[in-house]
Specification:
- There is one protein chain.
- With about 625 residues, this protein is of the alpha/beta class.
- It contains 24 helices and 14 strands.
- The protein is about 50% helix and about 10% strand.
- A hairpin with a 6-residue loop joins β6 (about 175-185) and β7.
- α22 runs antiparallel to α23.
């Protein structure tokens, strides 16, 4: 069946053994060749089914390999390239089917081998299709045009519209529709029904056609074709022989008065021969500009020819593969969005205080982009009007705090300056001091009375819970730290330990500098985590956008202390939105909710201090982006 060639660089024996083991299961053999061996070999009749390159990823090395292949064979020959932690940018520009990391896993090898098998199947089917077109019709240019269009479209609905409109145009069909066979679950068996997806008609106004299902059985034409996997070419649906089990649906004719005469119904079959949908073309016209009505249908409509049927069958083969590819793309998209949702849920689970923050931030980002898209003169119009940049920004907004996964949970949920256990320990110590004052005052020389100890107890409660430590409270806390008591073991000891003092004496907030540094490290962790994902080119800047949302335009932010325009525009927008959402979010244990008026004032002040981008803040306020979630909820 051919062989897989492993171009050895630093290939480990374990990887080679695994390749041979899994390849043998799939009927492949493995040939190991050195770089010198590749250079000296001319592949002709023994053309491999695919290549695994263990050489360092280099454009020159890859082109060196393809230079020894037969002309044209490299375009469809699967090549998998080993990469490290990061995928080089040139990979997307090279004829490479996929990349892998070492050490190899059995699942990865199986996946690549199956990709080779699928690639072979698609390639063989495409070759057969092109040969048939050359032999039976002089419509090669039309087919190439269709293939090019289908291969570049990943949106399923747009793809179906394109398939139908192209076939109708070439065959001069007045109307048509496409039905898709859904799977019961992702990757599972097909259901026993067809879902109506697309309808087009040049002569009748269809309005908005609702989706509906057609059972796969002998009663309906589309269902019969799906059941038998055979085409039906009907000259006149109103004159069907009584012996056939199927009948044409009359809903369209009754609703619009449109008469259906000739009909060509083709099954859309994938490379496994499974029917994935049905393409139906209606009323083959003598001239494309004719508008049909009941009076001229008999005169202006003719039957679909055998040549028409053969052509559409050729297109249907490629269309089915494209449909499955588009469905796979949607499944991958759903899988990725599920990963995003799970990642955000993981963050929310660890930090329930800010639960939902990332989704609310993305809501504000969407509102910002919507407003910018409506204003071509604003500086953010280019960003908002680019689907790729918009999607990249949305994903970055959702993932901007993913680095918090690496932050200790007690810091994420820290309500006061001391943890519950730490504070209870100090209170127990104060109980001991009061006991000494009652029984043996000389062992508590730092206090003159129980009343003084009670005042210190209240001081500790106040300091532990306050967000900002005043000079007066700081002075009293410093006095308390130096007060001495005698332990049960007879040792003299300051009332507050150094660690307790460090935490309680924080002047603003409830985090020590060391704890603040740990919290701030989430930006670096965000970049590190997101950089591990092999983003496609249009999403490549997600790690940077997400990691820069704590940068400040004057360079006082983190982690890179970037200034001005060195901060990505998406990150500057995200910084404003992140701060605003945190200010107006539901009450958090360590701070009350900020009023709308106060929050906007803080944004203006931060912009005046050159911490936030003034243009972003102005746009955010002038366009009333801050009200967007309220509008959405209402």
């Amino acid at each position: 069946m051919g062989s897989l060639i492993c171009i050895s660089g630093e290939i480990q024996q374990r990887d080679l053994d695994l390749l041979r083991e899994v390849a043998g299961i799939h009927g492949f053999t493995v040939t190991v060749m050195s770089r010198d061996g590749i250079q000296g070999k001319r592949f002709e009749e023994d053309l491999p089914r695919g290549f695994f390159s263990f050489l360092p990823p280099s454009p020159d090395l890859i082109l060196e390999l393809f230079a020894n292949l037969l002309l044209g064979s490299g375009e469809c020959l699967p090549l998998f390239q080993r990469v490290g932690d990061e995928v080089p940018s040139f990979i997307n520009k090279m004829p490479i089917l996929g990349v892998f990391e070492t050490p190899l896993t059995k699942a990865a090898v199986c996946s690549m081998l199956l990709a080779i098998v699928r690639s072979d199947a698609v390639n063989e089917r495409n070759k057969a299709m092109v040969s048939a077109i050359v032999k039976y019709r002089n419509e090669k240019l039309d087919l190439v045009r269709i293939g090019t269009a289908l291969s570049s479209e990943n949106d399923l609905q747009k793809l179906l519209e394109l398939i139908l409109s192209t076939c109708r145009e070439i065959l001069c069909a007045d109307a048509g529709s496409i039905y898709i066979r859904e799977r019961k679950e992702h990757g599972g068996a097909f259901s026993d029904t067809l879902s109506f997806k697309v309808a087009q008609n040049d002569s009748a106004d269809l309005g908005r056609m609702p989706e509906y299902s057609v059972p796969i059985n002998c009663n309906y034409i589309a269902g019969y074709v799906a059941l038998t996997a055979r085409s039906l070419n009907i000259d006149d649906v109103e004159r069907l022989d009584e012996s056939v089990p199927y009948r044409a649906g009359r809903a369209l004719m009754e609703k619009t008065g449109y008469r259906i005469k000739s009909m060509l119904t083709i099954p859309l079959k994938n490379h496994d021969g499974e029917v994935v949908g049905v393409l139906q073309l209606i009323n083959r016209k003598n001239a494309p500009s004719v508008r049909l009505d009941k009076a001229n249908t008999d005169q202006m409509v003719r039957s679909f020819s055998l040549s028409d049927e053969e052509f559409v069958q050729s297109v249907a083969s490629q269309a089915a593969v494209s449909i499955e590819r588009a469905q796979l793309y949607e499944n991958i998209k759903a899988l990725f969005e599920g990963f995003l949702g799970s990642s955000i849920a993981a963050i929310d689970e660890r930090d329930r205080v800010t639960s939902g923050h990332s989704k609310r931030v993305m809501g504000f980002v969407n509102a910002f982009l919507d407003a910018a898209e409506k204003d071509p003169l604003c500086p953010y119009y280019e960003l908002a009007s680019s689907p790729d940049r918009r999607k990249q920004f949305q994903f970055a907004a959702l993932l901007h705090d993913i680095g918090k996964i690496g932050v200790p949970e007690y810091l994420l949920t820290k309500e006061n300056k001391l943890g519950q256990g730490e504070f209870e320990s100090i209170m127990s110590r104060m109980d001991y001091v009061e006991l000494l004052l009652a029984l043996k005052p000389s062992n508590a020389p730092g206090w003159g009375s129980i009343e003084e100890a009670e005042r210190d107890r209240e001081l500790l409660k106040q300091v532990n819970e306050c967000g900002r430590l005043s000079d007066e409270l700081y002075r009293r806390l410093d006095e308390l730290k130096q007060k001495i008591y005698i332990t049960i073991q007879g040792q003299k000891k300051e009332f507050l330990s150094q660690d307790e003092w460090n935490k309680l004496s924080v002047r603003s907030g409830n985090l020590t500098p060391e704890e603040r540094e740990l919290i701030n490290s989430h930006a670096v962790s965000t970049f590190r985590i997101l950089s591990k994902i092999p983003w496609t080119g249009n999403l490549a800047r997600i790690p940077e956008i997400a990691a820069q949302h704590h940068e400040r335009t004057d360079g006082s932010g983190y982690p890179g202390k970037l200034t001005g325009d060195k901060i990505l525009v998406e990150s500057r927008i995200l910084a404003v939105i992140d701060i605003y959402e945190a200010l107006v979010a539901q009450d958090r244990p360590y701070k009350p909710r900020t009023s709308l008026k106060k929050a906007l004032q803080i944004l203006r002040e931060e912009a005046d201090r050159n911490h936030l981008d003034k243009n972003v803040v102005s746009f955010f306020i002038e366009k009333e982006i801050y009200r967007s979630p309220e509008k959405q909820s209402s």
